[in-house]
Design a protein that fits this description.
about 350 residues, alpha/beta, Quinone Oxidoreductase, Chain A, domain 1, Rossmann fold, seven-stranded mixed sheet, globular, binds zinc ion
Length: about 350
């Protein structure tokens, strides 16, 4: 059986959309149809090999989607054929079946436990969490990372308390989930910083107390003046060293500075570490330490009961055949979210 998939064959190059041969299902693996998938900043990082040379080329890519279960391998108990599910990269319930191998042009084509830039995929059972059939597939794809990671950074990692000040730098992608998480957690004030006015407008709509354009070179000074005191929590979604340094400087003596965007492997920070000895914390988020199987149903309920719509979060849409256009949109920084429909 074959499927169309976007293949990363060379670092920095456009993906190739082509047919690959799907392997048979192993223990703990599921065969799924991708309904919609989001392009995450992580995939741009993967294409550019920001974590270091890519040893797995050629390989498939993508890690956030809403899917329909077509077939289950042995050992999966929490899913049924025909179920809708969120496909997420953080491990959830069930067996960790590891990666898989497709065939492309007569040779192996690697894939991790989850890949989603394709029509049909083999995914490890523990990367799939069932959701109600009537869930909007785009909302499901946002649950895969944006909302679980965004809320997780606030809840599990920053452990934000009511009335703490939170500054979020970079409010598209995962940042949009962080802003909503901060508002829901009762942070105050919630300050959003971004280069793009559409992301600041969305942050404001979600309940951010104040927004600042990062086009203004004095944005950090203005945030400091607005708060009137150093921040309790500052998040950096950009992964840019200069921005993370400013985030660190905005933190108070016991403040928590959390990097969400991954920095290139060959870049370094320049900071004075004395504040770390006195109680300031600088750390990086690992997917918000989220637990998809425990959290997705709860978060869907919160959004539904509070009538919080994420419709406007998706600003760009394309098909699998147009995925390189979607990636160019992501590189422009303009989209809040880009969704890809395989067909
Ligand atoms: Zn992601």
């Amino acid at each position: 059986m074959k499927t169309r998939a976007a293949i990363l064959h060379q670092t920095g190059a456009d993906l190739i959309v082509d047919e690959v041969e799907i392997p048979g299902l192993g223990y703990g693996q599921a065969l799924v149809r991708i309904l919609t998938t989001r392009i995450c900043g992580s995939q741009i990082g993967e294409i550019d090999a920001v974590k270091g040379p890519d040893r797995y080329l050629p390989h498939l890519i993508g890690h956030e989607a809403t899917v329909e279960i077509l077939e289950l391998g042995p050992g999966i108990k929490h899913l049924k054929t025909g179920d809708r599910a969120v496909a997420h990269w953080r491990p959830g319930e069930g067996v960790d079946a590891g990666g898989t191998r497709y065939r492309w042009k007569g040779a192996d084509c690697n894939a991790g436990p989850i890949t989603t830039f394709q029509e049909i995929a083999v995914i490890s059972g523990n990367r799939l969490t069932p959701i109600p059939r009537d869930t909007d597939p785009e909302l499901g794809a946002l649950m895969a990372d944006t909302l679980t990671t965004g809320f997780g950074v606030i809840h599990h990692e920053a452990r934000v308390k009511i009335g703490e000040s939170v500054v979020i730098i970079g409010c598209g992608g995962i940042g949009s989930g962080v802003v909503l998480g901060a508002v829901l957690a009762g942070a105050h004030p919630v300050v959003a910083v971004d280069l793009h006015d559409n992301k600041l407008a969305l942050a404001k709509k979600m309940g951010a107390t104040e927004t600042f354009s990062a086009k203004d070179p004095a944005w950090a000074e203005k945030v400091r003046a607005f708060l009137g005191h150093p921040a309790d929590v500052v998040m950096d979604g950009t992964g840019q060293p200069a921005v993370l340094e400013q985030a660190y400087e905005l933190c108070g003596p016991k403040g928590r500075c959390i990097g969400i965007g991954v920095m290139r492997h060959d870049r370094k920070l320049s900071i004075n570490t004395l504040p770390l000895h006195l109680g300031r914390v600088l750390t990086g988020s690992e997917g918000g330490s989220s637990q998809p199987h425990r959290e997705i149903s709860k978060y869907l309920r919160i959004l539904a009961d509070r009538k919080i719509s994420t419709k406007e979060w998706v600003t760009h849409r394309c098909t699998l055949a147009e995925i390189n256009q979607g990636i160019r949109w992501m590189r422009s920084g303009e989209p809040i979210h880009v969704m890809v429909r395989p067909a």
